[in-house]
Design brief:
mainly alpha; flat; single chain; 5 helices
Length: 188
């Protein structure tokens, strides 16, 4: 390892640490906010059920439905769990980067340090893996959102017959023709 390499790798580690810390915070916040929202809705509905039972009146069906949905909603639980796993993954990556950063700084602070190829390799691997994960996470989010959008679009289209969709397309075509036929106001 050279002084120049130590300076370069230290800068890269700090940049990835900054991004990783923000990612971990954002994911922990998403998990926490979602968890608190679910529990707040559940508590409100549970309070309504208990109050209705105490008063001897019929329990509101919407409150029972909310409680049941909250307990049975695997989709929500998976989303919140994924955020928690992602947060811990970034927390682990940041911990590794901090350890490597400390070792590099210790090496730099040593008077006439010995060459340490193992430290240079470890710093390189830590940075390379972190950057690959950073880029991979971003691409994964984009692909995931696109896949969800395509799935929702297909689910929407399945509720209609081919004739319904042709009528829809025809209505849009007529609208576009009318828009193109109308004169536009231009400032001269």
């Amino acid at each position: 390892m050279s002084d120049d390499y130590a300076a370069l790798i230290t800068t890269v580690i700090v940049a990835v640490l900054l991004i990783g810390t923000v990612q971990a915070y954002t994911l922990f916040k998403a998990w926490g906010d979602g968890f608190l929202e679910l529990t707040a809705d559940w508590r409100t509905s549970a309070d309504n059920v208990i109050q209705a039972r105490r008063a001897g009146v019929e329990v509101p069906a919407e409150d029972l439905a909310k409680i049941h949905e909250g307990r049975e909603s695997n989709r929500v639980k998976r989303q919140k769990f994924a955020a928690l796993v992602g947060a811990f993954a970034w927390l682990s990556i940041c911990a590794i980067l901090v350890l490597v950063e400390i070792k590099v700084l210790k090496w730099s602070a040593t008077h006439n340090p010995k060459e340490d190829p193992q430290l240079a390799k470890a710093a390189f691997l830590a940075c390379a893996v972190s950057i690959v994960i950073l880029v991979g996470e971003g691409l994964g989010r984009v692909v995931g959102r696109l896949a969800i959008g395509v799935k929702r679009q297909r689910e929407w289209a399945r509720q209609y017959t081919d004739d319904d969709l042709r009528h829809y397309d025809e209505a849009l075509r007529v609208y576009r023709q009318r828009q193109e036929a109308e004169p536009t106001d231009s400032v001269t």
